[in-house]
Specification:
146 residues; alpha+beta; 4 helices; globular
Length: 146
């Protein structure tokens, strides 16, 4: 059974410093939503996900925005439906352990409207390596991962 996660401490400005949540297990799914903005031409007549999809957002202490599969399941929701909206047409999945194996930190950072939001810190300089770990979760037709 999935464990509900304890929220992180926030700094005075409301941000969360990069940390590794102890209750996110190595096998837990970490889901990155993919929008049309993340899709580029592959130079061979096809389309692929850009490595920009795997870089952090801008802002203080920003990481790569993700959804935590175990948290979604613990809430009794269907993860593939939760992460797919008109804006986000697909998603890719990693395991927390694989991301940590690259030196990343995986934390729980709930947001208004998304109680299952997390951040992955440390992807800025290794986006291509992070991308190589991705597997389709909700596949976008006619789009390659790399």
């Amino acid at each position: 059974m999935a464990v509900l996660l304890k929220p992180p401490q926030r700094n005075a400005d409301g941000t969360v410093s990069p940390y590794d949540h102890p209750d996110i297990s190595p096998d837990d799914g970490v889901i990155r939503r993919v929008s049309e903005y993340h899709i580029v031409d592959d130079g061979r007549g096809g389309r692929r996900i850009s490595s920009m999809c795997f870089k952090p957002s801008s802002g203080a202490n920003a990481g790569m925005s993700v959804d935590l599969e175990a948290s979604i399941l613990a809430a009794g929701l269907k993860p593939k439906e939760f992460v797919t909206t008109p804006r986000f047409m697909g998603s890719v999945r990693f395991t927390a352990g694989a991301l940590r194996g690259l030196g990343c930190r995986v934390g729980f950072v709930p947001l208004p409207g998304n109680d299952h939001h997390g951040e992955v810190w440390g992807t800025a300089k290794i986006a291509k390596k992070v991308q190589s770990l991705a597997v389709w979760y909700v596949q976008i037709e006619n789009v390659d991962l790399v």
